[in-house]
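Morning - aspartic acid inputs below, output right after.
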Amino acid sequence: MDTSILLIYTGGTIGMKIDPQTQALAPFDFSHILEEVPELMKFGYKLDSYSFDPAIDSSDANIPFWRELARIIEENYDKYDGFVVLHGTDTMSYTASVLSFMLENLDKPVVFTGSQLPIGMLRTDGKENLISSIEIAAAKDDEERALVPEVCVYFESQLYRGNRTTKYNAENFRAFRSANYPVLADVGIHIRFNPELIRYPKWGKKFKVNYDLDPNVAIVKVVPGMNINMLSILTKVEGLRGVILETFGSGNAPTNNEFLGAVRELVDKGLIVVNVTQCHAGRVDMDAYATGIALKNIGVISGEDSTIEAALAKLYFLLGKYSENSDIIEGLKKNIRGEISK
Ligand code: ASP
């Protein structure tokens, strides 16, 4: 049977070209992708495309958008061997993280990619990103099983687990980083997959989508000398259920009574408080310093070595799934989709 891949164009730089009349960048009709990148025909795969209408700048990604994207994947799940999602780079790591939790028992690749320069420009990075993403989405083992049945991000020769990525460079072609987890594949002359790092599902389990997400989460970056009111005001936000504290180093924060009192107030009010480091690499260890121990004693939960994007996505997912705090806390401690190292 022919290999079939669905390209889902959501928006972003990759799907733009210069309008010859105005010389301005404008989105092109993505159903004409084969005219823009005729090289794709050489694959010999069945390549279909679906475009969001209107295409969005990824700054506008939100819960309805994620649900729509997941719905398109669900509707087409049995018809295709893999999915390549073209997405703006700005929030690609958020979308990949959220989708990783929404898509359950995933046994096909969902590869996110995009570009820093539009596909219609001479020096574009979009063509290579698109072509390699398709090849990765189509890759199968001898038993016809997907080589990378994960939600991943492919960019500039590297394939990452999606929920481990962060956009860290607004200019370079290498725009993403996965500081706490090695790449799933390296692309050079050959595509070198790292199967020992890839998560494989229990094959044959029914694929399903978790549509329930709850966005009632605030992120507070802890800074030296911060105004504690910024924290205590959160007890007054109606409907708020979770707070991510972006802490220093291995999960440290001020030790003064005012700060700790404000955190305690959040926990006492029934909010789930998660500790994620503002460092780009490494993990939270709330046993290392007195400051971390103080947070742990109050009931703050460690975000381990999670990215901010993945911690947020995990909370959206767990808050959508459970109403009891004990279930949410239990879920936070588990490695659900490879988002933390345990
Ligand atoms: N602003 C664009 C977006 O994220 C940038 C890009 O596509 O890379 O949609």
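Note: Residues 184 and 196 are 9 Å apart (CA to CA).

O.
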